[in-house]
Every structure is written in structure tokens, then in C-alpha cells.
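Whiteboard transcription, Tuesday session. T.W. wrote the C-alpha cells on the left side:
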């Protein structure tokens, strides 16, 4: 049976497999990455890790790729609920360029309303449109939620949407993105025990972890030097193994001040991540929503990122 779904001005056609009830798009199989490792239909690698970035404000990353001389293996983009059609078009272009699209959406309704099913038509429309793409896509809903609402509502929203999206799109990995800070050191209401979705399959757990040394917060220069390997990556990696879930960094950043103090810090952080089994590392190369110097404007820092990018896996283009 042919199903036609209209989403925010975009029309996606899909065929229903009547034996399973799943909508089947053209991408129902995995493949082989450029490092020789295989990847699942949802884009999870059997070995290696994707490396990439968010660039500007959803800006085409061709300029960054030209500067580094290495194409991105993964690309993070961020969307409002009414931007489904543009997000799908951008994901299609990323797949054509060999980049794994990792997209974040804010939601059209409150967490509680989404958890109750009031936003199912929107979520199914998005998933159906993504199911027609010729490769895997990673999706997250309302990343970095800490401090923006009730933990239980957010968790229930994830628990409700994960099986719905995964059933509608077998090429889409459902990812959950938190800050990492609150899960390890901050508000107990956002601990992993409280925030992590229960009794449902999540494909990738991700965290947004920055080296903030030298940044200014509330008029104070940050002088703390974090031990990311032992205090952050090791406990998160151990937790992910215990949960049986893949993990990585959806956002990472190193200030110019931190890189000046410790040249090579990006490649050092990546090596520490890989030692803990992370499968993704996305650098935040953007001035948006921050006043710190995370952008890749320093030639030495850019070269260090390029060396990490060269170690990453890429989809076949």
C-alpha cells in the first residue's frame, strides 16, 4: 500500500510492509564505511567513529572542508518544528556528500503534550520523510533540556517518541542528547538515573562537553582545567557499556585559551574518547549561543581538528 504524508509543505511517499506494519523507505540496509567497517541501517558503525562538526548556523560546511582538506564524516544541524522540509533536504545533501546527518529538533508542543501523543502526526510525518532518504540519519528531540522543564515530562516524551520514530523509519537512529555536566556533577533531577529513557530502545546517547578554560561566565573568567578523560569520559563510557548503548559527543569545543595552554588538545580529547568506546565526535564550530572562542579560526587549532577529522569514518557517497 502506498502512503502519502505531507509534512510542513513537503510530500513524502512510502510503502507499507503489511506483514510488519513498518513504513519501508529505500534505505533498508547498511553498508561499508570508508575505513572498511560496516554500519547498520541506522548508521551505527561496527568499529571506528564518525568525526565532524556543526558549522555556523546550519551553514554549508564546504568552506570548512576546503580549509581542513578533509570532508566531514558527520554533520550536526539544528531545526525548529516548522522546518521539517528544509531539514530533510539538508540531510539529503549531506548524505550525497558522504556525511551522516545528525539533526536536532525543537518540538511543536510541550514535552507533556508530546508524551501524551498530541504531536504524533508531526513526529510521524518527520520520520516518514526521513525514511525516504538513501542513507542513515540520526535524530534528537530537544537536546540539552536541563533547566527548561520537568525531567519526567522530558523523559516520557523521549520514551513515547523513540519507538514511534524507529518503527516508521528503519534508517533513523534515535539519539538522546544531554549536557553531561548535570548527569555527572549538577542537578540531581537530571542525573542519568532520572533522565535516561526507560524500557525503550535508544540508539545513541550523546553529550555536549566543552573545555571552557578562559571563557567568561557571569563576569568571571573560567580558570578550572577539567580532567575530561577521568572525570567525564570514563564514567560516561562505563555507563554506556552498562546500558548497552552507543555513545559520543554531539557537541565539543576547545577555547583558544585552552588550546594555547595545551596545543593538540582536540586530538588528545578524541583519543581519550575513543579509548572509552565513543562512536561520534562533533565539534561546535559556530559563534551561536556562546561568547567563548570555540570557533576554528586559529590555524593551529584548525590543523589539530583536521588531524582528528582524518581519523574518522565516512559513509560511502
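and on the right, the sequence the group agreed on:
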Amino acid at each position: 500500500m502506498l502512503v502519502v504524508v505531507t509534512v510542513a509543505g513537503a510530500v513524502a511517499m512510502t510503502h507499507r510492509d503489511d506483514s510488519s506494519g513498518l513504513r519501508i523507505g529505500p534505505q533498508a540496509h547498511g553498508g561499508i564505511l570508508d575505513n572498511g567497517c560496516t554500519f547498520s541501517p541506522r548508521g551505527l558503525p561496527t568499529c571506528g567513529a564518525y568525526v565532524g562538526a556543526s558549522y555556523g548556523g546550519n551553514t554549508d560546511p564546504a568552506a570548512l572542508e576546503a580549509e581542513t582538506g578533509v570532508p566531514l564524516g558527520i554533520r550536526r544541524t539544528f531545526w525548529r518544528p516548522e522546518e521539517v522540509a528544509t531539514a530533510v533536504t539538508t540531510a539529503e545533501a549531506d548524505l550525497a556528500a558522504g556525511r551522516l546527518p545528525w539533526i536536532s529538533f525543537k518540538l511543536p508542543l510541550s514535552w507533556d503534550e508530546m508524551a501524551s501523543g498530541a504531536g504524533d502526526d508531526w513526529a510521524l510525518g518527520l520520520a516518514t520523510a526521513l525514511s525516504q532518504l538513501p542513507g542513515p540519519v540520526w535524530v534528537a528531540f530537544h537536546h540539552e533540556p536541563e533547566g527548561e522543564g520537568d525531567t519526567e515530562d522530558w523523559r516520557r516524551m523521549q520514551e513515547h517518541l523513540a519507538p514511534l520514530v524507529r518503527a516508521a523509519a528503519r534508517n533513523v537512529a534515535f539519539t538522546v542528547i544531554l549536557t553531561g555536566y548535570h548527569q555527572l556533577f549538577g542537578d540531581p533531577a537530571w542525573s542519568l538515573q532520572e533522565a535516561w529513557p526507560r524500557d525503550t530502545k535508544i540508539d545513541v546517547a550523546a553529550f555536549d562537553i566543552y573545555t571552557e578554560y578562559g571563557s567568561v561566565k557571569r563576569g568571571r573568567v573560567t580558570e578550572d582545567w577539567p580532567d575530561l578523560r577521568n572525570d567525564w569520559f570514563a564514567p560516561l563510557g562505563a555507563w554506556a557499556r552498562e546500558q548497552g548503548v552507543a555513545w559520543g559527543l554531539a557537541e565539543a569545543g576547545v577555547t583558544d585559551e585552552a588550546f594555547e595552554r595545551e596545543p593538540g588538545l582536540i586530538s588528545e580529547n578524541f583519543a581519550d574518547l575513543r579509548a572509552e568506546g565513543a562512536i561520534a565526535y562533533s565539534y561546535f564550530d559556530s559563534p551561536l549561543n556562546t561568547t567563548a572562542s570555540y570557533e576554528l579560526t586559529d590555524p593551529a587549532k584548525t590543523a589539530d581538528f583536521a588531524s582528528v577529522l582524518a581519523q574518522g569514518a565516512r559513509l560511502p557517497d
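Someone added at the bottom: The chain has a mean pLDDT of 92.
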